[in-house]
Design goal:
There is one protein chain. By secondary structure, the protein is mainly alpha-helical. The strands form 2 sheets. A 3-stranded antiparallel β-sheet has the order 3-4-5, covered by helices on one side. Strands 1-2 form a two-stranded antiparallel sheet. It has helices at about 10-15, 25-40, 45-50, 55-60, 70-90, 95-130, 140-145, 150-165, 175-180, 215-220, and strands at about 65, 70, 190-195, 200, 210. The chain has 2 domains: about 10-95, no CATH class; about 135-220, no CATH class. It starts with 10 loop residues before the first helix and ends in a 5-residue tail after the last helix. Helix 2 (about 25-40) runs antiparallel to helix 3 and helix 5 (about 70-90) runs antiparallel to helix 6 (about 95-130). The protein contains 10 helices and 5 strands.
Length: about 230
């Protein structure tokens, strides 16, 4: 049987997983994924031919076993696609082709949708968990909260967190993850102070305040330091 030329590609999941990567890194990463789909496993030479040099952000996306590299998600999708295609082919060779095939296809598609939703949600949450980088609280409880969020809010969160961390470098002063989600903190404006003592709204660069205009307490609250 010829190699399957296609594979399911989840655009939202990919964008979320590569949000902190540069466009150049994303280009190299997608080429490596395509090459893995064709070869199954990647050698160190394959990695360097595309990356040119060691890039931790890209290499961290791959697992190394016996000196060969592979992306776990790509491996899973390739296996799932192969098994799905094989099962459909075998069922359609039976006598009652129409009934068996249609029933199986519906079953497989429903099963895949459920598995893919769970996998995507879990990966998105892990990306949030790692990016926020204050790993305290009940992780399972937080995951349930995460599943209830709208996609547009998840996107805002991934945009907001780097700015929030930049404004509050010391993680002990950041809100706990549960508080961050409960308070919809990704909608908070972020205020930082520059060398001239001027507070600047990171979400609106044209907005400035003099340090004499408001109290320090106001700025601490606005920056999201309070829990």
């Amino acid at each position: 049987m010829a190699k399957d030329p296609a594979i399911l590609f989840y655009t939202s999941d990919f964008l979320t997983g590569t949000f902190t990567m540069t466009n150049e890194q994303v280009g190299k990463y997608i080429k490596l994924l395509c090459l893995q789909h064709q070869k199954g496993r990647l050698t160190e030479k394959d990695m360097l031919n595309i990356c040119q040099t060691y890039d931790k952000d890209i290499y961290d996306k791959f697992i190394v076993e016996d000196g060969l590299y592979y992306n776990k998600r790509m491996d899973l999708e390739a296996i799932r696609r192969k098994n799905y295609s094989k099962s459909r082919s075998e069922n359609r060779s039976n006598k009652d082709v129409k009934n068996i095939s249609e029933t199986y296809v519906k079953h497989m598609e429903a099963e895949n949708v459920i598995e893919d939703i769970d996998l995507n949600l879990n990966k998105e949450f892990e990306d949030f968990w790692d990016l926020y980088d204050k790993k305290v609280g009940d992780k399972k409880k937080l995951f349930i909260k995460w599943k209830k969020l709208k996609d547009e809010d998840k996107t805002k969160i991934f945009i907001h967190i780097p700015k929030y961390k930049s404004a509050i470098p010391d993680k002990q002063f950041r809100k706990n993850p549960e508080t961050y989600l409960n308070n919809n903190s990704w909608n908070d404006e972020i205020i930082t102070r520059n060398e001239n003592g001027i507070y600047r709204n990171s979400n609106n660069p044209s907005s400035f305040r003099s340090s004499s205009d408001d109290t320090d307490e106001f700025h601490v609250i606005k920056a999201g330091i309070t829990s």
